[in-house]
């Protein structure tokens, strides 16, 4: 399903990304999930209709009649089901910077920049402790890849700096020296982002 989905969205120039737990391996974090979550950036109903038609021709169907004012619609193939979101997170919409920073993952799959992906975890209305753990893992594993300045911009953009800081307070815990060293680096990078 995913291969065909991305082939169709690419063919008709609809930016699309994996989001949720299935996208975590793109950032070197592995967690099992059975959910398939996708996000597309489509601005006109005619283009959304075209997407639904082309997906159906590739044996990916929906029982819904997606509209631009909907948050999501569900698509089905013979073996899979996925939620297809019309924006990357229920708390915010697509913007030019986010679209510009989409990155390739495997064959023709795409994901958000890590900083934007963290925002989708942070800003969701139904955020859970698993999302907090994902954020912490993303920071630990990707400490040297994160554009800390951009992360600050995104936190300001979604007005979630306080929530983010409460999550990274976990890095003030004293556990073991390796963890403490990484935690100190993350907090230092966050507090003093290096500008390129």
Task: Give a description of the structure.
With 196 residues, the chain is α+β, with helices and mostly antiparallel strands. It has helices spanning 2-11, 45-57, 96-100, 114-123, 129-141, 148-158, 161-168, 177-191, and strands spanning 16-19, 37-40, 72-76, 81-85, 103-105, 109-111. The protein is 43% helix and 12% strand. The longest helix has 15 residues, at 177-191. The protein is elongated. The relative contact order is 0.13. The mean pLDDT is 92.
| CATH architectural group | 2-Layer Sandwich
User: How much strand?
Assistant: 5-15%
Distance between the termini: 39 Å
Low-pLDDT runs = none
Strand order across the largest sheet: 1-2-4-3
Mean pLDDT: 92
Please state the CA-atom Rg, rounded to the nearest Å.
18 Å
When the domains are counted, the total is 1
In quaternary terms, these chains amount to: single chain
CATH topology: Beta Polymerase, domain 2
Structural class label: alpha+beta
Brief synopsis:
The protein contains eight helices and six strands; from the N terminus they run αββαββαββααααα. The chain is of the alpha+beta class.
């Amino acid at each position: 399903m995913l291969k065909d989905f991305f082939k169709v969205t690419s063919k008709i120039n609809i930016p699309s990304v994996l989001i949720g737990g299935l996208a975590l391996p793109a950032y070197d974090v592995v967690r099992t999930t059975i959910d398939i979550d996708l996000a597309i950036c489509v601005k006109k109903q005619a283009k959304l209709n075209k997407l639904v038609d082309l997906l159906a021709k590739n044996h990916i169907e929906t029982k819904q009649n997606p509209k631009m004012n909907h948050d999501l619609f569900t698509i089905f193939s013979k073996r899979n089901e996925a939620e297809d979101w019309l924006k990357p997170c229920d708390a915010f919409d697509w913007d030019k910077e986010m679209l510009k920073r989409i990155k390739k993952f495997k064959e023709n799959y795409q994901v958000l920049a890590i900083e934007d992906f963290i925002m989708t975890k942070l800003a969701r209305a139904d955020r859970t402790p698993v999302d907090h753990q994902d954020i912490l893992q993303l920071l630990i594993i990707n400490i040297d890849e994160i554009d800390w300045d951009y992360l600050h911009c995104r936190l300001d953009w979604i007005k979630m700096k306080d929530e983010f800081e409460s999550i990274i307070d976990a890095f003030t815990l004293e556990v073991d020296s390796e963890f403490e060293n990484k935690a100190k680096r993350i907090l230092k990078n966050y507090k003093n982002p290096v500008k390129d």
